[in-house]
Design brief:
The protein is of the alpha+beta class. Helix 9 (305-315) packs across helix 11 (339-356). Helices cover 53% and strands 16% of the residues. It folds into 3 domains: 37-154, 2-Layer Sandwich (Beta-Lactamase); 195-289, Helix Hairpins; 298-455, Heat Shock Protein 90 (2-Layer Sandwich). It is built from 14 helices and 13 strands. The chain has helices spanning 8-36, 38-59, 65-74, 106-118, 163-185, 187-200, 215-260, 266-293, 305-315, 317-320, 339-356, 388-393, 415-425, 450-455, and strands at 78-82, 87-89, 103-104, 128-132, 135-142, 145-151, 300-304, 324-327, 334-338, 364-370, 374-380, 429-434, 440-447.
């Protein structure tokens, strides 16, 4: 399983997210810079203090509470006027406490600077502002009086503004949307990866279903075409093997008849051995390809697995004389299979193990184990084992491991290939690996009943 940061979708999403965060940060810094710039602050400060001037003109001096009431009725704020002879408020709820920390408004300072620079008399020089319990307060000196403003009005309920939470929620939502879009864009990559794995495992009939017309769609089409080409090459190879094998049978039969007419001699014996070897190769090849093509129908029957293996070893002159230790199951092991092909498969694996097992070494071990729905047959020799290259190719036709390249060592490179075809025809698997100590282990796994794999 891939780690999160090994996923291409996650990487692209993070790139989008980091880019968005950098953009928002730059935008925030830019806005703050503009707000902090003298020119903008002077402009805003000018309009703000000018508004206060107009408001104070409407209230008159000394403050007229009637006029103040009219202003409050038209504007979204409450007002409080405090002086030596006046203490008026538009709302009894509007109370000024020491908890409200008023500070000199920077915008007002900018306005003062602007007035001085233009040669005008500075106005509202002492305007202060504060933020308290989600309300904005202003403190305006007006001669012997002080005017306080608050917005929104005290009669209006103030609700908390979840700005930070909203920003976080929106950010997460955007990130989720980006991830979903990236996942959708890269979905064909997962299909292509799955298709490549299936085809790489030998399922050449598998096709990648990608409907996009972009580069990924083109790549999927090329991989599908590659699988078709490989299928055609393998089919041509199999047809060639079958054709050559059939064509060789007739001349070999004639050659055997010719040799049988010769007088007994060493030459006759050598010729017959070579003809027998050729006939064995052709028979194995035809059987393998017939099973592979599906031309050879399995003759399924129920039989006792351990009993079959034991009897086969006893009846075979070659196997009975070999050093073999058979460890059967301690209970009945009924299997549904083609008994004849099964015997051929076990015999080929045993003969291959005998070929590499030291003559004076440990006996070859054959063990039957039972799983829930399958049986596993393990055959181990104590020979030199196989190289990494041999392990991946030993079941290919005509392939012989490095230590058996000559005919004298026995084998034609078709025995294990035939075994693989028989096992796969029974919906099983065959695995070959080196033992951790010495030698090689061939593990054959087959279902107890053939219909179990179809229903699984």
């Amino acid at each position: 399983m891939k780690k999160p940061f090994q996923s291409l979708s996650v990487k692209v999403t993070l790139v989008f997210f980091v880019t968005a965060v950098a953009y928002l940060y730059g935008l925030t810094v830019g806005i703050r810079y503009l707000i902090g710039a003298d020119e903008l602050r002077e402009t805003i400060g000018y309009y703000q203090t000018s508004y206060y001037d107009y408001m104070l003109e409407d209230i008159q001096y000394p403050p007229n509470t009637g006029k103040a009431e009219e202003v409050v009725g038209q504007m979204p704020f409450d007002m409080k006027i405090v002086g030596t002879d006046l203490d008026w408020t538009s709302s009894p709820q509007f109370i000024i406490t020491d908890a409200i920390n008023f500070e000199l408004s920077t915008l007002n300072v900018a306005k003062i600077k602007a007035d001085i620079a233009e040669g005008r008399a500075p106005s509202r020089e002492g305007v202060e502002a504060a933020r308290y319990k989600n309300r904005t307060y202003a403190k305006i000196p007006y001669g012997d009086y002080t005017i306080f403003l608050v917005t929104p009005k005290m009669s209006v309920a103030v609700q908390r503004t979840y700005i930070v939470e909203a920003i976080i929620a929106i950010t997460l939502l955007i990130l989720l949307i980006c991830y979903a879009l990236v996942q959708r864009i890269f979905r064909p990559i997962k299909l292509i990866e799955e298709g490549a794995n299936q085809i790489g495992q030998g399922h050449l009939e598998y096709r990648i279903d990608v409907k996009q017309k972009d580069e990924l769609g083109s790549l999927a089409e090329k991989i599908n075409q590659l699988a078709v080409n490989v299928q055609e090459m393998l089919a041509a190879k199999q047809r060639l093997n079958l054709g050559v094998s059939h064509e060789l049978r007739s001349p070999l039969t004639r050659a055997r008849l010719e040799v049988e007419l010769l007088e007994d001699s060493k030459i006759k014996e050598d010729l017959l051995n070579e003809i027998n070897a050729m006939e064995t190769i052709i028979a194995n090849l035809l059987d393998s390809e017939a099973i592979n093509y599906g031309h050879k129908k399995l003759k399924l029957e129920l039989f006792e697995l351990s009993e079959m293996i034991g009897q086969m070893i006893q009846k075979s002159g070659f196997l009975s004389k070999s050093n073999i230790a058979f460890i059967p199951l301690d209970r009945a092991a009924q299997v549904e299979a083609d008994k004849t092909l099964f015997e051929v498969m076990i015999k080929n694996i045993l003969e291959n193990a005998i070929r590499y097992n030291p003559a004076e070494g440990e006996p070859i071990q054959i063990r039957v184990e039972q799983m829930e729905h399958t049986y596993e047959i393990k055959i181990r020799d104590f020979g030199p084992g196989l190289s990494k290259e041999d392990l991946t190719k030993v079941t290919e036709p005509f392939y012989r491991p490095g230590q058996s390249r000559s005919r004298q060592s026995g084998g034609f490179g078709l025995g294990l290939y035939l075994c693989k075809q028989i096992v796969e025809a029974h919906q099983g698997t065959i695995a070959i690996e080196n033992h951790e100590e010495t030698g090689a282990v061939v593990a054959v796994t087959i279902p107890k009943r053939q219909n179990q794999m179809d229903n699984a």
